[in-house]
Predict the structure.
Amino acid sequence: MSSGGKAKSKKAAKAAEEPWLKAELRKLYQGRSKRAVRFRYGLIAFDIVTITFFVVSSVLETTTALLIVDFSIAAVLIADFAARLWIARSRPRFLFNIVTAADIIVIATLLAPAFTENFAFLRVLRALRLLRSYHVLRDLRGRYPFVKRNEELLQSILNLAVFIFVVTALVYVFQVEENPQIGTYLDALYFTVTTLTTTGFGDITLQGPAGRLLAVVIMVLGVALFLRLVQTIFRPQKVHVRCPDCGLNRHDPDAVHCKHCGRVVNIETEGD
């Protein structure tokens, strides 16, 4: 028997040894059937809904209804996390993934009110669920031509959104209890955007040495990183054409020569 045949036999034997539930979960999470595709569409929709809910709920007052929603989402996230951990090819690799770490933190913040006071900053940490957006974008890329065509633009918008919400979370966590000017997540978002855009109205300022140091860091990031992220959204997107000489595969839409080696590149256009 060939080595390829032996490998397939071993794989089939291993699959046959798996518990029925584990095999079914693997088909749902990794299979290509219509049922698996619909299941993953459901996961994508759930990710989008929870991300939106966490961002919006960070500015709302804590109520019993909100806690019920929190615990319900936590139950779904725990079930999803347990299923993905169970079927993972390499569990250490799965556990040390940054998206997995963000999911663990989000689950912890959802369950925290059952054991302690519902600290407001814990709800802000749920914005880490935004990291799941990269996974969502990757899944949508292979299924929708629009997403594939505009992947760079969508990636830039996502990077900008994640950056703003992470910086806002830092401002809120470090200032909410000692700065009377920052009482809600919306106040922190307002300060962050005005600082990153160098508008700086001055009606909200960070308090204390740590706050001033954080403000300096945000201003430096605003000049260096924030403006660069905004530029990537509005500048023309690169086209993917591989240069046969040097291998460069990203060029300006109107490029005639490869900017790396100077060879003439033939970029298809529709004309004026």
In short: The two ends are 60 Å apart (CA to CA). The longest strand covers residues 239-240. The CA atoms of residues 4 and 54 lie 48 Å apart. Strands lie at 239-240, 250-251.
